[in-house]
Hints:
Layout: H1 4-31, H2 37-55, H3 65-92, H4 95-102, H5 105-116, H6 124-142, H7 152-176, H8 182-203, H9 210-214, H10 216-244, H11 246-250, H12 256-267, H13 274-291, H14 300-305
Helix pairs in contact: 1-10, 1-12, 2-3, 2-8, 2-10, 3-7, 3-8, 4-6, 4-7, 5-7, 6-13, 7-10, 8-10
Amino acid sequence: MIKKQAASTGHLLAIFTIFVWGSTFVSTKLxxxxxxxxxxxxxxxxxxxxxxxxxxxxxVNTNSITEELLFAGAGLxxxxxxxxxxxxxxxxxxxxxxxxIVSVAPFFTAVxxxxxxxxxxxxxxxxxxxxxxxxxxxxxxxxxxxxxxxxPLGDFLAFLAPIFWxxxxxxxxKISERGYHTIGSTRKVFFYGLVFMLPALFLFDxxxxxxxxxxxxxxxxxxxxxxxxxALCFVTWNRxxxxxGAVKTSIYIYIVPVITVIASHLVLSEPLSWTMGIGVFLxxxxxxxSERRTNPQYSIKKRMDL
Length: 306
């Protein structure tokens, strides 16, 4: 059983991470006026890798091929595929649709954890909270404009993204159980993510110039994404997963749209509406319900056995 102090640390780390990740939308949106999505993605993780290398320069040696594959799989799923699929989806379908679809990551994380991790079973409270939070996220994403405008390919790619994030969460839980240094293991995951991302650089029109990289505001946002949202927050998130578990930590992802709405209003002067206000409330209520422990006798597995 997790000690209360350790659990509190895990929750604080998750909350901090989500606050930063929720605000990255603003920096990314501003950068996309000068950079394309793959440029922003590669630069932020390259900066993040360099920072983690400075903080923990020691080589992270694994004990077996199986453990090395865990790191490679985490890099492929959590860095390369998740962000590439999300960014490509944004070019093919509505941003609101992508935001809603990728926010179901906690559901997939819970399902995969139920089958592949010990002690992380689906519960009734989680499912009830998920439904309430999803309604709130939909209201935030569409802001009262419920226009059905589907793009099958874009929506399908957006749907794949949270599945790969769920796989990443399960893999990081398995890595954390093996006692690797959190910063070192995160750096190793970044390394594999950057390696798997290299082919994408040749598929997109990548044109990096010194002028773009040294422009003060662009550099500031890139450093925020690379140092804050990537290097620091992946470490704090992975540590939270190691303390709380994949399912409980993933619940905080529900709050990302809430932070994004607030940050966009404050920095980009994007309007708020009563629909978004209700959506924020439902999202917070849903995340609270999902986080609550359910009596084991009411777990979904036991209900199915009746």
